[in-house]
Amino acid sequence: MLFHVRMDVKIPHDLPREQAAEILAREKAYSQELQRSGKWRHIWRLAGEYANFSIFDVQDNAELHAILSGLPLFPFMQVTVTPLLRHPSAIREDDS
Amino acid sequence: MLFHVRMDVKIPHDLPREQAAEILAREKAYSQELQRSGKWRHIWRLAGEYANFSIFDVQDNAELHAILSGLPLFPFMQVTVTPLLRHPSAIREDDS
Amino acid sequence: MLFHVRMDVKIPHDLPREQAAEILAREKAYSQELQRSGKWRHIWRLAGEYANFSIFDVQDNAELHAILSGLPLFPFMQVTVTPLLRHPSAIREDDS
Amino acid sequence: MLFHVRMDVKIPHDLPREQAAEILAREKAYSQELQRSGKWRHIWRLAGEYANFSIFDVQDNAELHAILSGLPLFPFMQVTVTPLLRHPSAIREDDS
Amino acid sequence: MLFHVRMDVKIPHDLPREQAAEILAREKAYSQELQRSGKWRHIWRLAGEYANFSIFDVQDNAELHAILSGLPLFPFMQVTVTPLLRHPSAIREDDS
Amino acid sequence: MLFHVRMDVKIPHDLPREQAAEILAREKAYSQELQRSGKWRHIWRLAGEYANFSIFDVQDNAELHAILSGLPLFPFMQVTVTPLLRHPSAIREDDS
Amino acid sequence: MLFHVRMDVKIPHDLPREQAAEILAREKAYSQELQRSGKWRHIWRLAGEYANFSIFDVQDNAELHAILSGLPLFPFMQVTVTPLLRHPSAIREDDS
Amino acid sequence: MLFHVRMDVKIPHDLPREQAAEILAREKAYSQELQRSGKWRHIWRLAGEYANFSIFDVQDNAELHAILSGLPLFPFMQVTVTPLLRHPSAIREDDS
Amino acid sequence: MLFHVRMDVKIPHDLPREQAAEILAREKAYSQELQRSGKWRHIWRLAGEYANFSIFDVQDNAELHAILSGLPLFPFMQVTVTPLLRHPSAIREDDS
Amino acid sequence: MLFHVRMDVKIPHDLPREQAAEILAREKAYSQELQRSGKWRHIWRLAGEYANFSIFDVQDNAELHAILSGLPLFPFMQVTVTPLLRHPSAIREDDS
User: Fold this and answer.
1) For residue D85, what are the CA distances in angstroms to C87, E58, F71, J28, J47?
2) CA dihedral over B38, B40, B42, B43, signed as positive or negative
3) Over 80: is that where the pLDDT of I39 sits?
């Protein structure tokens, strides 16, 4: 089941630099592992913003939340979730 | 080059029913042809809304606008465009 | 799987009265059938508004959309969907 | 009498970790006691957000406020209250 | 139990004048009867707007909704309801 | 002359506790003195929010501002002022 | 007593042209008479918008509302009122 | 050439008190000098808000910006500029 | 003096087609004449929207308003004006 | 390919003054080098705001993002990107 997620990141300027770097490294590893598993199906950066649009393919709402709330950057993110479904005009096999 | 597009459709209730049906048929054909060409890469419906999120892969802004303004439903749509790029954590070949 | 849905109804004042009455009768029957099936788990009216908050228990996003877009009042509604999950502090068996 | 409440939690990143943990433990106990009493009838988490939708069944506005303002997390929450009533199409006994 | 209600009125310019006048006459009678009964405790006009702030004193949410949805102008109003309670600093007997 | 005022209070979490307590005590005394004088005619708490709706009866805009800007909590408030007048349907003597 | 008023005009495109012209002529006469009386102290157009900022000098809220609701264009306006007072840094005699 | 400017001031609560007082004193002197020169033509306080509406009479956009960005309080202000012109119904000589 | 203008066009769907075509033809001629005169210095379309960003170089606010309110599409536009000035980092001769 | 970018700068008041000055100096050099290269085609200040409108001429979305995210002030900016294209009424050679 697919979900569209927008993540906007806002790291406070008084967060110690090493702490921020460590969080970002964990974030990248976490994201790539989920991408390899097929659960984090797409991720794109928005031009000019510290933000991404992502597509998740998960079993249910609970799994989606477990993934998102486990993001190392989660405390510094605003997250917007939109449930998706196959569009009646879609022709691509895997857009559902 | 990738763009994220949100389309919200609002057909006026006093538009004659046959006219609406004819527009919708043309819209579907138009969309599917662009999907087959590879330019309209993804399309998903938003649960509970008369709206879609789409990903376009076009040469430039002008081509994107030509495609969108050519949509039979364009006069009844609110369209929001966001330019995308490859996310530094992305692992999938074709997410850029 | 649970979803929270807010529906705001706005019937155009120039819609013929009998047509409106007929739609409302179908809406009520449609809603009650889904309530009996267990898919439309809760429905509450918002005091002072022509609107409701509802909880749906469906298999997936696609089933939710099929139900919502099938509402006789759907063309006159603004619908907002929020995916839910069990809260870690919940004690009630069926709140998930 | 039923009320719909949305709670959005935002804990400042410079709040000492032990203080946050202690508040969260009290919050959980407080919530579960009210759930057992029947006053906090439902609680659901919103997927991807540090937020919940809840349904309260209280005697009046004053009791609702006493409960909400007594939440250990109240100083870190944005709270939105909506008074509810039985929907004319509802069939479930206890949705009012 | 007290509720604060804001009503914004927007009468469509193509509503026949006599129909509008008849609705407004019924609205005034309806409001004054409820004021005499003590349920519609206060009503003030907002300077420069076709709107009012009102205070209702009702038994519960259901009674409030019955009163508001029975307003002759209800189909042309946007209504915002806020549940009130006695303020801890209030000294006036009847502000609760 | 009547004014409707909404006050939303937001005390920064890093304000020393004793300082906050001292401000709140002064706020209560200040409010009650103005209520006794008849200038602060009504005050109600909004259920679930650290906010109030109030009605002031003052000579002019300048007196209203002097009262509001003198509130001990003023630096931590967002204040919204709406000028009121007698509603043409009002029957209560003192709603103007 | 001074008030700042913003008026945004939106004339429906299906209003007969002669009717619109007649309303506009009355509006101008009405405004100029009030300007001559000193009650409508200033009026400026906003560049690029069918809107004005005005300053009114009236006895009280009720007189302001009588003037504004008597505007021939009132049914086609959105009006925003802000009560003003002398600024502590003002040096001009008549800015209060 | 006239401009309408709204200034909303928000002084951080952790700014040392003497520093704030010194800025405010400079702000007042700066404002009054510009008022005497005729460039800052009007200034009014908004009732209940730490804000003002002002009218500036300057040569061009650049002069306006030089004045505004030179305000001692500028780093703590949100500023909204609206270019004005003579209203076709205006009768006062100096409202343009 | 430079101004940034955003124009959003919304033509009502029940405007007769020939009338719309005639307005659009006049709009284009009007715009191009002003571009040739140097007053309408830039115009760009926004991808996916019936809107443009433009830069005007005019003598003052009054000339800007005369140009904008004279647009054949003006009754169907929402216009947003922002006064500009030379940026301190600009190197291009004619960006002021 | 052209993009319209709005940048709003907000430097925290507790950022050390020398650090801010150093960032601003780098920002200016960075901007002017990109202007000389032709990629940052226009930059204008908004009157009364710590903000600019800019036009970028880049190869693609990725190049735009590289430029924007490399801005020394990027962590303190809110950035809004709008893809542009040649307007059908444009006559100027280089507005595309």
Assistant:
1) 24, 13, 38, 60, 51
2) negative
3) yes
Q: Are A85 and B47 a contacting pair at CB < 8 A?
A: yes
The whole-number pLDDT of residue J94 equals: 76
Residue I49 contacts B, CB cutoff 8 Å: yes
- From the list J4, J32, J47, the residue facing I44 with the nearest CB is J4
Give which of D58, D6, D86, F52 is closest to E96, Cα–Cα: F52
The token duo for F39 is 């200038």
**Unique residue bearing structure tokens 């490399």:** J70
Phi, psi of I27 (to 5 degrees): -60, -45
* From I14, I15, I65, residue closest to G47, measured CB to CB: I65
User: How many Cβ atoms are within 10 Å of B84's Cβ, its own excluded?
Assistant: 25
Asked if C89 lies within 8 A of D32 by C-beta distance, the reply is: yes
Asked whether G84 and H54 are in contact (CB, 8 A), the reply is no
ipTM of this complex: 0.95
Backbone torsions φ then ψ of I18, nearest 5 degrees: -70, -35
How far apart are alpha carbons F47 and A78 in whole angstroms?
27
Q: Do C89 and D2 touch (CB under 8 A)?
A: no
Provide the residue type at I65 as one letter.
H
Nearest by CB to residue A62, choosing from C3, C62, C85, is C85
CA distance F35 to J7: 47
**Range of weakest confidence among D4-8, G89-93, H68-72:** G89-93
G19 close to E (CB below 8 A): no
Output the average pLDDT for chain D: 96
User: Does residue D95 or residue B86 have the better pLDDT?
Assistant: B86
* Chain C neighbours, 3+ Cβ pairs < 8 A: A, B, D, E
Buried b (16+ CB within 10 A) or exposed e, B9-24: bebeeeeeeeeeeebb
* CA distance, residue I16 to nearest chain B CA (Å): 14
CB neighbour burial string for F62-93, b if at least 16 within 10 angstroms, e if fewer? bbbbebbeebbbbebbebebbbbbbbebbeee
B85 Cβ under 8 Å from any chain J Cβ: yes
Pairing of strands H40-46, H51-57: antiparallel
Residue type, A38: G
**Is residue E49 a contact partner of residue E7, using CB atoms and an 8 Å limit?**
no
- Structure tokens, C12: 């155009």
F82 in contact with E at a CB cutoff of 8 Å?
yes
Q: Chain E: list its partners (3+ Cβ pairs within 8 Å).
A: C, D, F, G
Its sign, for the CA torsion F50, F55, F60, F66, is negative
CA distance D7 to C63: 28
Q: Does I95 touch chain J (CB under 8 A)?
A: yes
Check if J94 contacts I (Cβ < 8 Å). Answer: no
H91 in contact with F at a CB cutoff of 8 Å? no
| Residue in the block written with tokens 């002030």 | J73
- Which residues, other chains included, contact D75 with Cβ-Cβ below 8 Å and sequence gap of 6+? F11, F13
Alpha-carbon gap: B57 to the closest alpha carbon of chain A (Å): 13
Identify the structural domains of chain G with CATH numbers, from first to last. 2-83 (3.30.70.1060)
Q: Nearest-CA distance from D18 to chain E in Å?
A: 32
Q: Which helix (H) or strand (E) holds C33?
A: helix C17-37
- The pLDDT tens digits for A4-47 are 999 999 999 888 999 999 999 999 999 999 999 999 999 999 99
User: Cβ contact (<8 Å) for E49 and G5?
Assistant: no
Nearest to J39 by CA among J2, J65, J92: J2
Distance between E88 CA and the closest CA of chain C, angstroms:
26
Phi-psi region of J17 (alpha: psi -120 to 50; beta: other; left: phi over 0): alpha
Question: What's the token pair of residue F84?
Answer: 């009121």
Bridge partners (DSSP) listed for residue F40: F56
